[in-house]
């Protein structure tokens, strides 16, 4: 496509403005984490590593990181298993209500977090009579993390078609052997990408977490929210925020790289 | 197991997809060691019959028996037949050797043993030394041979081949046809070969079933199918035929019914020369098409129809420069084939003669 130089300049300007609007605040957070000021003043009066040192000695913050990692890992594992099963069922078998089930599986990602949160809170406490705990957070996160796995796997299954599975059955392999030797190896990268996204989604989730965590469980986002407006904690929060951004971005970057590499390989 | 047991027996086999009768009451016995072809236009149900035999589809009604055993309710992995798929379906994440060894692997054969057998199978399709490659690194013809090796290494009692040569160019195709035939003779097993290429079916097969709209229109040896087509559909689908409908038959032959005459059985001569055949009709030369070893001449007969005549090329043939001149077309009574007097659906036979495919 050819554009006039005016149009090209305009497009470039819009792109720069949009990207700047997204990423400049992140840069501010990064810079502030090295600032000598404790009150998020701009520009920073001086530079220090004090907050980074403090952050890594902060028991509350480290605890929160650990909790978040546990929640994200568990939610990811659940999503991988259930997401794969659901996509296999919906892509490989005909049954009544298939379309409806398919929609129901994807819906949680579109539901407002606050609705999911309130609904799950209700279900856990009043209907099931459960104490809110790390387990309830994990289950809550899994409800929407499944979607990323499901979407990745079902797209791959559609692309693969059934002919490899037919060929495997034709050569004498049962259903499980076919899955293990033929389907799963070809799903691996889709599972990896879906799992990474699920991890990132869980790691920085805050709304649903608020409603399902109770008072004893502090994930990293919850800890940040608690500490953001405490005067002496603000710089430490900046440090944690930077870490959180990195932990969220890296998996997405890797997932994108995998998708890109596979497109080229095909 | 009785010795005269058919390898494959289909009884009343029917498969409907929604409103479509993909397969419509097929009864068929295929003998052990037979090279059997299913020939038919696109959508006539050939693939569906194959998938029903392999077990990928469940029939709406009817049964599939293999060597006297009813296998209608058995899963594909529980049937003693193997398939060579139209798109080969080689596992892309496995090496060629592992692909070929797959059927042995799922039967629990140890690695060393199955690799030895797989190497042997690769040798029979002349692909020794290719075992370490991935399927993506092979040419179309090589992939096709890997698919053959993979399906035959497990020693099936019958091999189902769904247009296995469809993706190959003409030269490779002809070469692979010979190899297929040799392989079948070597293995001595039943081959069921699906194709929509009539020439391929005629050269390879012991018997052919011509499919039309989910039914077998005619079943017989290649010679029977070609020389004695039972219906206008078969006459037009297998090779080229000049078809005389009821009115024209009365006019030219002096009797009713539908008749066909092959283009190569017709002779052509200039208006003033005698051609010494039982039947002679005058007309105008409409088109002359040179096809290498022979020439196809299209003539508009005065009785109101168009016929195709195939003539070997020799010095005195009617030439291209004679387009538009008056000619005589003739043929002998013994080359006139009476087709079933079934009425021809108008849209099945839009032209009186079907042109041969351009690639042939
Ligand atoms: N899974 C399916 N769902 C719905 N209709 C189908 C399905 N499979 C086949 N059909 C229909 O059944 C009919 C027969 O199809 P089939 O694939 O057996 O034809 P074919 O003779 O193999 O044709 P081709 O030469 O094009 O491969 C077609 O009308 C097709 O549209
Ligand atoms: Mg087909």
From TrEMBL, chain A:
Transmembrane helix in keyword set: yes
GO biological process, one term: transmembrane transport
InterPro entries: Bact_Polyamine_Transport (IPR051789), MetI-like (IPR000515), MetI-like_sf (IPR035906)
Protein name: ABC transporter permease
Gene Ontology CC annotations of this record: plasma membrane
Localization per Swiss-Prot or TrEMBL: Cell membrane
Keywords: Cell membrane, Membrane, Transmembrane, Transmembrane helix, Transport
Family to which this protein belongs: Belongs to the binding-protein-dependent transport system permease family. CysTW subfamily.
Main localization, broad class: membrane
Pfam families: BPD_transp_1 (PF00528)
Domain named ABC transmembrane type-1: residues: 65-255
Transmembrane segments: 12-35, 55-88, 100-120, 126-150, 190-214, 234-254
Protein's membrane topology: Multi-pass membrane protein
TrEMBL record, chain B:
GO (cellular component) term, any one: ATP-binding cassette (ABC) transporter complex
Gene Ontology molecular function: ATP binding; ATP hydrolysis activity; transmembrane transporter activity
Organism superkingdom: Bacteria
PROSITE patterns named in the record: ABC_TRANSPORTER_1, ABC_TRANSPORTER_2
Alphabetical list of Gene3D superfamilies matching this protein: P-loop containing nucleotide triphosphate hydrolases
Any single Pfam family the record assigns to this protein: ABC_tran
SMART domains on file: AAA (SM00382)
InterPro entries attached to this UniProt entry: AAA+_ATPase, ABC_SmlMolc_Importer, ABC_transporter-like_ATP-bd, ABC_transporter-like_CS, Mo/tungstate-bd_C_term_dom, P-loop_NTPase, Transp-assoc_OB_typ2
ABC transporter domain location: 8-238
Alphabetically ordered keywords of this record: ATP-binding, Nucleotide-binding, Transport
Name of this protein: ABC transporter ATP-binding protein
Taxonomic source organism: Cryobacterium algoritolerans
């Amino acid at each position: 496509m050819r554009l006039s130089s005016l149009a090209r300049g305009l497009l470039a300007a819009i792109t720069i403005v949009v990207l700047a609007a997204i990423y400049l605040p992140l840069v501010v957070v990064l810079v502030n984490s090295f600032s000598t000021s404790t009150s998020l003043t701009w520009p920073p009066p001086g530079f220090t590593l004090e907050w980074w040192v403090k952050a890594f000695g902060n028991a509350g913050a480290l605890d929160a990181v650990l909790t978040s990692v546990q929640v994200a890992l568990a939610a990811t594992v659940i999503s991988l298993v259930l997401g794969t099963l659901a996509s296999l069922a919906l892509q490989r078998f005909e049954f009544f209500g298939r379309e409806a089930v398919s929609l129901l599986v994807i819906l949680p990602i579109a539901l407002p977090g606050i609705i999911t949160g309130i609904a799950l809170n209700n279900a856990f406490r009043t209907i099931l009579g459960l104490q809110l705990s790390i387990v309830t957070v994990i289950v809550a996160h899994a409800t929407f993390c499944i979607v990323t796995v499901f979407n990745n796997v079902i797209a791959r299954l559609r692309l693969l078609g059934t002919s490899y599975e037919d060929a495997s059955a034709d050569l004498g392999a049962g259903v499980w052997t076919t899955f293990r030797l033929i389907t799963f190896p070809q799903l691996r990268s889709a599972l990896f990408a879906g799992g990474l996204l699920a991890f990132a989604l869980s790691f920085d989730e805050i709304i649903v977490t608020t409603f399902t965590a109770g008072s004893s469980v502090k994930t990293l986002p919850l800890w940040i929210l608690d500490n953001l407006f405490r005067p002496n904690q603000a710089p430490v929060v900046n440090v944690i925020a930077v870490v959180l951004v990195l932990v969220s971005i890296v998996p997405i970057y890797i997932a994108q790289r995998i998708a890109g590499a596979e497109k080229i390989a095909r | 197991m009785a010795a005269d047991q058919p390898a494959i027996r289909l009884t009343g086999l029917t498969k409907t997809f929604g409103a479509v009768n993909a397969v419509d009451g097929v009864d068929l016995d295929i003998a052990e060691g037979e090279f059997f072809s299913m020939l038919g236009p696109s959508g006539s149900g050939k693939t569906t019959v194959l998938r029903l035999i392999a077990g990928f589809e469940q029939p709406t009604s009817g049964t599939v028996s293999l060597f006297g055993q009813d296998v209608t309710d058995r899963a594909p992995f529980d049937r003693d037949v193997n398939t060579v798929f139209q798109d080969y379906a080689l596992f892309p994440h496995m090496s060629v050797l592992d692909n070929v060894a797959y059927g042995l692997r799922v039967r629990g054969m140890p690695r060393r043993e199955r690799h030895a057998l797989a190497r042997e199978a690769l040798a029979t399709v002349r692909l020794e030394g290719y075992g370490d490659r991935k399927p993506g690194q092979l040419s179309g013809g090589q992939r096709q041979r890997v698919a053959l090796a993979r399906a035959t290494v497990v020693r099936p009692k019958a091999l189902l081949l769904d247009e296995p040569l469809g993706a190959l160019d003409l030269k490779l195709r002809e070469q692979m046809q010979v190899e297929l035939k040799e392989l079948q003779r070597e293995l001595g097993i039943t081959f069921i070969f699906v194709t929509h290429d009539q020439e391929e079916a005629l050269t390879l097969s012991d018997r052919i079933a011509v499919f039309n709209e989910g039914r077998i229109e005619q079943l017989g040896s290649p010679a029977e199918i070609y020389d004695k087509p039972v219906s206008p559909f078969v006459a037009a689908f297998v090779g080229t035929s000049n078809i005389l409908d009821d009115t024209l038959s009365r006019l030219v032959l002096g009797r009713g019914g539908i008749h066909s005459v092959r283009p190569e059985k017709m002779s052509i001569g200039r208006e003033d020369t005698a051609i010494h055949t039982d039947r002679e009709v005058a007309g105008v030369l409409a088109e002359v098409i040179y096809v290498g070893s022979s020439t196809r001449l299209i003539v508009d007969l005065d009785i109101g129809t168009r016929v195709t005549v195939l003539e070997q090329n020799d010095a005195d043939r009617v030439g291209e420069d004679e387009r538009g001149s008056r000619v005589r077309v003739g043929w002998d009574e013994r080359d006139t084939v009476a087709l079933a007097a079934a009425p021809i659906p108008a849209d099945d036979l839009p032209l009186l003669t079907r042109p041969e495919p351009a690639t042939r």
